[in-house]
């Protein structure tokens, strides 16, 4: 048996092929892709995907690990990143926030430590939180609350925390109950004191794993300049500087931000890195926004392209709509492609089972998003009809499987 295929057979044991460093890395997507195929109605897509179930799979850049693989692993932890790479994600995300000593760390939001780590179980650090734990009050209906930010503690203190699955119990009467809030459709099986990661550590890990990197500069939740001197521009520059210091080529990095001014800053000051900068389009939050009406999303796609932007990234539902009982591209998606913008979509498999009811990520598919097979139906439309560059997923094995089966070779 050839070494690469022997490795594929043993991938769950941690094997890696060393026979030829130029060969693509094998991937093990886990059972979820086959589960989703089973949920598909009979038809061409199901037959095409079923025909691939025994083929070898390899890492693919269409597949982006959204916060790692947080459907089952604590987000932005070393374990979650490793799982994403093992599932074949060609690109892995570190959301970036800053600490009290202005060091960059991987965290989805600056102020989510109370729900993604065990900080509240550490009295000496819980005392530093912006808002201490407050229990639920049944009589008034008041929910349990807390607010702990990366900017409340130092990077060294952050690194001593345990990452956990995202979630809190808002009906809790004490801290121990409050941190036990993992949704029932996720799992705590693999989040036994997962290891949090600084941004520099993520860069080193991603280099070791051989994946590309997509950091998102998170919007600060404290007044800027922080401590009177740490400005938004310095924050944006620090992110790029850490890639430069690690010797990472701009081609290996997809900078992200919802803040258009961050994109403008990178275009002016870091044009090589900005060539692959991703604007996370948050215009969907505007009351008048309608992905089928171009007048509701200004500036136009052509104006964005003319400004120097090359990649735009809206949520899944913005890119599709229903027409005659089928999923089809939205006017937004058609306009973005016509303007020459590449598209990245977010975030697949961040939803509860679709049979449980309406979901934010599928809101433009009100009559179709009724079963988990729609995950693959949507992915197929995004890939083949919308023509997206890549898709973020909380279980990147699904996007890896689909890409290997129906999109052909990645650049790996």
How is the topology of this model organized?
Elements: H1 3-9, H2 32-39, H3 44-50, E1 60-65, H4 78-86, E2 89-98, E3 104-106, H5 113-116, H6 123-126, E4 131-134, E5 145-147, H7 155-159, H8 175-178, H9 199-209, E6 212-217, H10 232-245, E7 256-257, H11 260-269, H12 271-274, E8 278-280, H13 301-306, E9 311-313, E10 320-323, E11 326-329, H14 331-338, E12 342-348, H15 373-386, E13 390-393, H16 397-406
Parallel strand pairs: 1-2, 1-13, 2-6, 7-8, 8-9, 9-12, 12-13
Antiparallel strand pairs: 2-3, 4-5, 10-11
Quickly list its features.
globular, disordered N terminus, 14% strand, alpha/beta, 9-stranded mixed sheet, 412 residues
- Describe the global form: globular
How many E-type strands?
A: 13
- Weakly predicted, low-confidence segments: 1-22
Q: Tell me, rounded to a whole number, the average pLDDT.
A: 93
Strand-pairing-aware structural class: alpha/beta
Strand coverage percent: 5-15%
Order of helices and strands: HHHEHEEHHEEHHHEHEHHEHEEEHEHEH
Helix content: 25-40%
> Tell me about the biggest sheet?
9 strands, mixed
Distance between the termini: 22 Å
Count of helical regions: 16
